[in-house]
Structures
1.
Amino acid sequence: MTVRWGLIGASTIAREWVIGAVRAAGGEVVSVMSTNTERGQAYAAENGIPKAVTSVDELLVDASVDAVYISTTNELHAPQAIAAARAGKHVLCEKPLALSLEDAHAMAKAADDAGVILATNHHLRNAASHKAMHQAIADGRIGKPLSARVFHAVYLPPHLQGWRLDKPQAGGGVILDITVHDADTLRFVLGENPVEVIAFSQAGGMGKAGLEDAVMGVMRFESGLIAQFHDGFTTKFAETGFEVHGTEGSLIARNVMTQKPVGTVVLRDAAGEHELPLDQRNLYETALEAFHAAVAGGGKPSATAEDGIWSLATGLAVVEAAKAGHAVKVETGF
């Protein structure tokens, strides 16, 4: 079947990544919703989308829409996803799923009740680098994993700064924008869940209204593994990376916390250094292929609603830890 998509939000990420991925994965984008009529019509024309509407309700009553991609600001995700599920539409939602665990669980329940797919757009677990690291750990190539490091401090370009830096009510700030990605990628690569976090946040001059624009901290996982993370909007010249260190070896990945299919992974052990072969593919196309297969009854999305709830719970724990100045348990509500 061809999955026909409606976009809830005429967003940059949809334009730069998701529309092309939908089409490459065999789907169609048939409608876009923007509350600004002129913006919506211009966006539709520029991206070859047949229809532009100005309300979620108008998009959801359209029988030609099978699934929706939600990329509005974070506080709108829950009501829009719940409405879409109740209208019988499958949902791919940007992270974080919501601003509270209660809302995220309500989204998952609405999808379950309606018998539709709800997925989280955690693209990084689709990277060839992270898949290779996951497999190397599962195969025992570094022994027992003991520690990890994620450095995901980048520079937020001017065209994306907006609400992420000046709207706390929209869930702005680096933690719910980037740290949730770290949490999901660590869960995927390690195959286990975080249980506790501690963190310090920073206001380096980009974030307004008291929003943090950088954070450092540590997550503790079920096995006792500890993972250090550094996220930021303010570091113009840093590289990203991901390391996992075990009793018999280390995995060293560079330039892998990115939307692009790039980067390297080196396995370092007693025999020396070996660069792992990577089948680099567009991360979003991989996600959309999995989503379309799930809609057709063949498997599940690469990042499920449950995955989105875990990353949100971890992000909220980091927010609380940074404010409270002590370790905070990760509580998912499951």
2.
Amino acid sequence: MKRDSRLSAVLHALLHMAERGQPMTSEELAGCMMTNPVVVRRTMAGLREAGFVRSAKGHGGGWEIACDLSAVTLKDVYDALGAPQLMAMGIHLESPACLVEQTVNRSLTTAFAEAEALLIDRLRTVSLAQLADDFRAHVAAHKRNLERKP
């Protein structure tokens, strides 16, 4: 089963947009997201509807951040993507009358729901601004390490 990496890719693109501070074309964002411009435009449309980005056509146009990064959480971005399924695992439904299958499925369904709730709660605690700050700190540390090398 292929993993859904849209949240990671979109967060990657949003950080590039925030750091750039000027519009980025769908082609530039496609390079960041390792996809094609059509996918970028389709994905960004949901973010535009949520008010996180805006687009301008013509020379010098493109996609840019349209929100306060500190007011948007990773959960907000996840929701703007249509709240894709978080868990790749599921339950076996081949013998619904089997009491063993019913027991296993009740246990797994509860465990999956609890795990998903924990992840959603975590996504609510991280803002795009925190992610951007973490990125900048990582860049600064990387530069310091490079300066120390002979």
3.
Amino acid sequence: MSDASPDDLGDLLEQPEPGFRQVMSCVFGIHEHETRTYLLLLDQPGSTVEELANQLERDRSNVNRSLSTLLDRGLVERERRLLDSGGYVYQYTGVELPEAKEMLHGALDEWTEHVHGVIETFDGDA
């Protein structure tokens, strides 16, 4: 699991039926606003930072930081589009939901395997 804190995991485990957003945030170690950005990109693929900032009612610099985190986690893809007037703009698309679910399963499996290893090496000394 990526950067999930024990508090995040504890909160998730205490929920009888955690929501998808909560699971995404915990497993990928991302904040709620980053999860919202990802979900918006599923609905509006090819969005620019400016379009996302308007839709999310957030500052462009904050949206840029969210997109950087999502890119690092492999949840978003970025494509450069040339503008007719010169220059370029980046367009962002969320990784398709089935792939994101696979990533969630993989991260949880990896974490579980790690924790099992920690348990096995425990010898009673704190």
